């Protein structure tokens, strides 16, 4: 199953697995008191020794959750076409970097690079390179095998990257821990199920005002964690709760805000576009923090480091953080985006070309997973950052008729490849 789109909690599951992370957290909490949910989530997911992504990062059928690129190759192919369509609409620049944040097993980039190869005649004069932002050493190894066959060079001297290699299709690939290390330049960014993994703060309205939800050790049960409320306001309640807020429970992901600001500034300065795909809402949901293990909901406070922790992406917050520097489109539902990108036609071609019933059934099943509103079709969204001039001619205000209309942005409108 895919990670469900909302609904927090999950049945408490026996905390088996090794308890190293729990012991580490319990020591820390005993010594210095409760921590924010963001701090807890960061430790549980990306602690360099024991974090969930650092150690296992269970994307895929044999892991803890499955994602769209793992379900069907068509997903990545259509995203590859999105980049080519934007590259053409932006006047076919002579070079671009494809930058993926949180590439998981590397499947999405692999599918995109296959499309780039198939459309080599279109891209022939363009110098393409791939830049992967990945904190997990374990997952970067899996990506290296998927994309290069495992032929990589660690710590290259000439770059800020921690690893480099060449894709099976001959394109240079570099790995970084942080988006800030990726060299500047015309870039197409991609973040699929990345923002939902970043640490969130949780807040609750009380009679005495806003309080922050914290994680503490349960005094009654050894090595058991529990949620508590901060006794007074915290710096985060003051910064992140808007005076006009109407909800009683709020989640905010400042790290997502910072990354979107970085993407927007880079796009404003060097050109390009960013495509963000994730489950999320437009500033309306309240309690979406949840855990997954073995494809099942998992209590977020039980056996930290052994389960994936995630929260819905607040697209209204991302839009606000991009504002001024880049234009935004969406969020639009996954099924609408993929339909606009031509998924129906692509499915027909694959069905016609497949000889056996099992393959056909698999194609139809994966189409249903991606598109069915009850499955991933409605709760996954696409959201884009684009340079302002991609949507409005700079001189449009003075001379509305002066230029031919800008081509529509594929996915958010129907795909028109000329
Ligand atoms: N995009 C993939 C994987 C999603 S899982 C897919 O859709 O299948 C989240 C990914 O983000 C993993 O690769 C994880 O290791 C990475 N990740 C999580 N937190 C990160 C951070 N702070 N910086 C960089 N990568 C991170």
UniProtKB/TrEMBL annotation:
Subcellular location, record wording:
Mitochondrion
- Catalytic class of the enzyme: transferase
Identify one Gene Ontology CC term for this UniProt entry: mitochondrion
Q: Is the keyword Protein transport assigned to this protein?
A: no
User: Which SUPFAM superfamilies did the record assign?
Assistant: S-adenosyl-L-methionine-dependent methyltransferases
Instruction: State the protein's purpose.
Output: Arginine methyltransferase involved in the assembly or stability of mitochondrial NADH:ubiquinone oxidoreductase complex (complex I). Acts by mediating symmetric dimethylation of 'Arg-118' of NDUFS2 after it assembles into the complex I, stabilizing the early intermediate complex.
Q: What is this protein called?
A: Protein arginine methyltransferase NDUFAF7
Identify the gene encoding this protein.
Answer: Ndufaf7
